[in-house]
Amino acid sequence: MEQCKVLNLYTLNETMAADYMRTAEYPWELLDGLADYIRRLGPTLDPEIYEQRSEDIWIAKSAKIALTAYLGSPLIIDEDAEIRHGAFIRGSAIVGKSAVVGNSVELKNVILFNKVQVPHYNYVGDSILGYGAHMGAGSITSNVKSDKTPVVVKDGEREIATGRKKFGAMLGDHVEIGCNSVLNPGTVICPETSIYPLSSVRGVVPAGSIYKNSGEIIKRRFTKS
User: Fold this and answer.
1) Distance (Å, rounded) from C-alpha 61 to C-alpha 100?
2) Would you say the C-alpha torsion 6, 12, 15, 20 has a positive or negative sign?
3) Rounded CA gap, 162 and 29, in Å?
4) pLDDT at 1
5) DSSP state at residue 225
């Protein structure tokens, strides 16, 4: 499960939560304490760059926030982020620099690294999305199993019991999720991986892969630019 560790999934200097991320071996271990961390971090932010809009909500002055967006606490929105019409941020969320949260997108208990895009009809709950990750229109994280039992992360025959009943997906840096895909509870997608549209994904998907469907994962071919 080495590939599932925080230091192998994420570029930590691409989030204001870097210090918090370093306190865990696996990223899902950070979900329980995220709300309290946001409440501690908010008051330390530079008032020249961020303003406190209401209790436990801090927003960068350069961020663009649609009037129709709902902002629940605790919440931090970083510089140059864009929160579009009809976005619903339930709270316990950090939205990174230049990130996009789009129309009818719902966030809950998440960290979005810098330049993450969740621009169209996405649900992202109990999840961490790495630098430059992108979720295509209609793709979602499913964060509760149908039988409501605790989530287990599975990588072939290896398993880690998380003890969590709510666990969406951990997306590494530069992960691309195809439109209308479902990331089932406990999904971990390692960096530089693409998921085909209309996929139902579960378990660990290795770095530098193309996920076509369950059982058909091929190595990506990278070309020099």
Assistant:
1) 16
2) positive
3) 8
4) 85
5) -
- In terms of C-beta density within 10 A (0-12 exposed, 13-18 middle, 19 or more buried), how is residue 43 classed? exposed
Q: How many CA atoms lie within 13 A of 133 on its CB side?
A: 33
Distances (CA, A) of 114 to 23, 76, 212, 224: 19, 13, 27, 25
Residue pair 6/22 in contact by the 8 Å Cβ criterion: yes
- What span, in angstroms and rounded, lies between the C-alpha atoms of 161 and 123? 24
Give the strands of the sheet with 209-213, arranged side by side.
64-65, 82-83, 100-103, 117-120, 134-135, 176-177, 194-195, 209-213, 216-219
CA atoms within 13 A on the CB side of 22: 9
pLDDT 10s digits, 83-107: 999 999 999 999 999 999 999 999 9
